[in-house]
Amino acid sequence: MEILVQKSIANRQSASLGGACRIVFVQVLIVALSAGLAMAQPVFTSAGVVNATGYQNALAPDTVFVIFGTAMGPATLVTATGPNYPTSLSGTSITFTPASGGAAIPAEIVYSSAGQVAGFLPSSIAPGTYAVRVTYNSQTSSPQNVTVVARSFGIATANSAGTGPAQATIGNLNGGLSLVRFTVGTLNSGGLNWALSPAHPGDTLVLWGTGGGADPKNDTGGTSGDQTAAGNFSVNIAGTQITPLYSGASSGYPGLWQINLTLPSNIPTDCFASVQVSAGGQLSNTVTIAIAPAGQDTCSSPGFSSSTISKLGSGNNITDAVLSVGIATNTIAGTKTVTEAVGALFEVYSASEFLTPFAGPAVGPCHMFQESFTPGGKIPNVQDSYLDAGTVTISGPGIPGGKQAVGILSTRAPGPTGKYYYSAFPSGTIVTGGTYTITGSGGADVAAFSVTQTVPPSFDVTNLSSLTTINRSQPTTVNWTGGGSGSVVITVQTLKYNSTFTNANEAFVACTVPASAGTFTIPSAALAYLPPVALGGSDFGSITVSVSQAMTAYVTGVSVAAQQFLPNLTAGGTTDFGAFSGVIAIGQSIAIQ
Predict the structure, then answer these.
(1) Which of 84, 141, 189, 548 has the CA that lies 20 to 30 A from 520?
(2) Cβ(281)–Cβ(231) under 8 Å?
(3) Distance CA 551, CA 536 (A)
(4) Each residue of 427-468: pLDDT tens digit?
(5) Range of the domain at 323
(6) Would you list the DSSP string of 412-443?
């Protein structure tokens, strides 16, 4: 079940906080309800107990939190009326019992349903470890330990899942009745006319969320005012550190916090400018905001056309074409394998799926990404389906018979369905520096095409043997030879599972630099985002597409020569993104300390 935190104006107050206008909003919507047995014992799912807006596991006093599970409440959602929420609602109650001993602390209940409950953690709770239990109709769950810290702010996002574009407002636009989006527009919701716009340098932004820290007045709907200095609040936007104008609880809604700030005149402009809040030494979830140059109605980012930005802004599906031919040499636990293959994927993503990898922060040419998912379930950033391009063949030096048909029908669920194209060849088939052509006959979705690409010349990572262990607190240098005029992508990935293998956490750092450089040092600020993993453990890491949650990490140097390729669609138009890449990849499993 998914929770949507949607902003609507419930009350509006003006305050002379550096000219900022505070918009007070909160509305919690439930879009799906899980059925539960009336007398079954409540059970937590792997998602467990999380901040309601940032989805982080660390909670703070004066926070709205969400618990996912089964048999936790009635089949039909029941909501309470704030600001004085009850400690029991339709038979559901939640307690936090100190691990160090002491009486259980009841949480206030915001809403209850079989698959999801939301509660409010009072400001009186002290930091520490707590055993959380849900009781429904006298049946009590097994405990789940949760850490409570002084502050753990979660930024509300447009997808209500704590990732992607922030659900931020612009204080100096339309009286604050605004939402930051990729392009200018309007939206009528709840009888209110919202202005949609990218942010601009000099604008006053308001970030909304929960978890700012204890404020006893806010427990009953009040506010103690600005906590910026007391909570050591700061906001990092696109690498620029900003001290907020105001960081505090909003009147009328227990747990609702806002952070007001002014964008500097020299702030970098980008549709995917990374945003992260630091409060009390704790970092929030990482999200993005769209920032356009002064006077422009639409943001821009390298590789994105204005039409694609508009599609993303409207929530429309995105199509892309990913074609590759090349050689991958991987060494895992001392065993080396060489894979020579060709692949062609014509994919369909929802806007939120496509935007997921852009939610992470960046340090120079290095981008970081993290996500959690249930093994065997739908991975948040994975495409929904594949498109049919008919018969796809490849020709070029070393290919048996000159051509090799590739085509596999995928009916995997809950993963993408449709036809994807892939063929592996015996070692020694693909020729470095060789030119290859992939041809499509045309199918139900993708029109006929032919595109040519050259595999890079010889490529080698010269210090790979010294990269068996990476220390996250120190920069790591990778050296290589060859690669021609293409780009080198250095990716360090990890995939870790929880003890019951019911939840996986993926993280990677990917740095892209010109092959001609011959060397690159991954900054420690980027590596710090990775979790530690041991070499040879049960977890797995991968450098290329995704890293398994194993106690092993994986580092790979990839030499890439790519050209834009936007095939025509049978129904008209072209794909939104596309490239044909010639690749040589070299990698190995590593430990990360």
Answers:
(1) 548
(2) no
(3) 7
(4) 899 999 999 999 999 999 999 999 998 888 888 889 888 888
(5) 318-592
(6) -SSS-BEEEEEEEE-TT-SPTT-EEEEEE---
